[in-house]
Specification:
two-stranded antiparallel sheet, 3 helices, 21% strand, 2 domains
Length: 220
Amino acid sequence: AAAAARPRSATARKEAHVTSFSELRCVLVAALLLGGCYESNLCGTEERCNLFDDDCDGLIDEGIVSDDGVYRTVEHCGTCGVSCADAFPTASEVACEDAASGPVCVLVACPDGFHRSGDGSCAPDVPVLCLPCTADEDCALRLPGSRCLETGSGQRRCGQPCGDGVLCPEGFACQDAQCVPTSGWCNCSEMSEGAELACILRVEEDGHACVGVQVCGVDG
């Protein structure tokens, strides 16, 4: 004969109820998290870079993150919200490139009239023609391609890049891709009317020179 079912005690019925409720709660929580159906991330919205599945297609940040799970766009470099344009606001072109530590923002190009400085930002070009110098770095720091030259008078002054369509101002000639004074002297003369020559306005306490420009007039 079949064994008669024994009625469960009140304690057993309570434990079964608790177990069923716990399982149901887990299912509901999982559905909310996996489906993205909660107030701050409603299911079916447009996919954004936020580490959630906004459009509820089972994928997170698709179209933004690479197939290998790495964020390497200039808008989201390394993770969501890291903008390379914000990292280099003076640059005309930036990129997100792979590095040993992960994707990093890099400066690719500076706008016209600017050059890449030592700290990775874009600094404005500064006139250096005839600026006193002791080494090429004194000139190239302000205008890339400029060199420190010895003039015919024995002075050491900055030249200025020339050639390939880049002309020298009046009173200067292009020699070895640098503008040099035809008179041998790096100063204003009747031959250099309108030329813009660099000059030192003042020297700061830390030794840095504040550079300005003097425009040669009719009388030099």
